[in-house]
Amino acid sequence: MSDQQTIHVGGEWRAAATGATREILDPADATTLAVVAEGGAEDTDAAIAAARTAFDQGAWPRTPVAERAALLRRVADLLQRDRETIGLLESRDAGKTLEEGRVDVDCVTDAFRYFADLVMNESGGRVVDAGSPDIHSVVVHEPVGVCALITPWNYPLLQASWKIAPALAAGNTFVIKPSEITPLTTVALIRLLAEAGLPAGVANLVTGPGDPVGARMSEHPDVDLVSFTGGLLSGTKVMRAAADSVKKVALELGGKNPNVVFADACATDEGFDTAVDQALNAAFIHSGQVCSAGSRLIVEESLRDRFVAELARRAERIRIGRGTDKGVECGPLVSAQQLARTEEYVASALAEGAVLRAGGERPTGPAYGDGYFYRPTVLDRCHRGMRVVREEVFGPVLTVETFRTEDEAVALANDTEYGLAGGVWSADPGRARRVAGRLRHGTVWINDFHPYLPQAEWGGFGKSGIGRELGPAGLAEYRESKHVYQNLAPRPVRWFAG
């Protein structure tokens, strides 16, 4: 297989039907990292047809659960075998640090093992009491069919696994379209699926842009479900495209996530240090290119000056550079477009009255060259009227707002059209749980930020999307429920006189 044969249809690797290609750039220096096929509508139709045939006529949907689970575990083992290679590829493609790339591979491994265990531990269906010994009634779960999986550029491998693992566990076939910016580890994952013994046609891949590839996947009548992770605008287009064929839709559309810090959390030196450290992690992991990034710091007013001063001091000391270099803590943004977007948001914030405490510019020096680097940025004196506070930046930009009362903190944290995640910091367990209970966000961390568990559902309220990934609900997205009602002693009803 050549580098340009990155389209996988019916078990075969191929180039794009048009012969078109795309250069994948290393965000650390803007040089060419790889050349991949630039698929189009013809490639997409072929991939969907292969998935349709594999579902309707192939063995995978009817493969015993134990065999499906065993394959998922083999994939997990292969991921660990290739951990260093795939972690490095993820680091170079997405710009994240090498350690982040390795952690991503471990998280993907956990997801495959979790869904393997989940389906193995299920019963044969839910028995429904019909009120008669002559009736056997059970609700069973079947695969939904052909799944169109569309993933984002920030966590290409992780987001692919969150969709592929439950789709396969449930017995579906699929076509996946990774971001055209960061497709390389998804290509690697499809290779591992084939090595693990997945039948041809079950897993199909089209590398290419959202239009036409993603659009065609969303509207195609032979697709039964579309699962999309990405931006709000693109997500609404996916939902509209899916409407005509009334297919199932699952959307994860990002967030504008609050990190609420009460003064009592910082009453001790250790508490203060921990809260500041975690605020940095919340905002600047992967250069802020995280859907759940704690990009809105909402801090109690009495604590603000001290907290922001220390936060800014530490932000200025974050080591920026190529993700594979030793000691680097923050890599580049993924693309020139994302760098320009970040710069525009910071400029608009300053024009609207924000006070720059740290960052706010590209780093200078020969080490940064043509890379898409931007210094971690802290913007103080922010308010909800600012675009940078309302809209998802997806860059290393942290805004600071203040509150005086618990009610005001909750009101600020919930004053967003999104609702993906949020954090609460307090030394008072009752207050922490009370505030967490009032936040309208799909995940709420108390005295922590960012960890997730494959066995716990992930998704958001409001415009953060619909549906859930991970956990039992994440598996349910890829299933249809069927009620089977069996009369063991049939007899005439005599409804009609005859």
Automatic annotation (TrEMBL):
Residue ranges occupied by any Aldehyde dehydrogenase domain in the UniProt entry: 13-484
Write down the InterPro entries for this protein, in alphabetical order: Ald_DH/histidinol_DH, Ald_DH_C, Ald_DH_CS_CYS, Ald_DH_CS_GLU, Ald_DH_N, Aldehyde_DH_dom
- Describe which pathway this protein belongs to, using the record's wording: Amine and polyamine biosynthesis; betaine biosynthesis via choline pathway; betaine from betaine aldehyde: step 1/1
Keywords, comma-separated and alphabetical: NAD, Oxidoreductase
Keyword set includes NAD: yes
The protein's superkingdom reads Bacteria
Claim: NAD is one of the keywords in the record:
yes
Q: Any idea which residues are catalytic in this one? A: E252
Which family does this protein fall into?
Belongs to the aldehyde dehydrogenase family.
- What is this protein's record name? Aldehyde dehydrogenase family protein
Native species: Streptomyces gobitricini
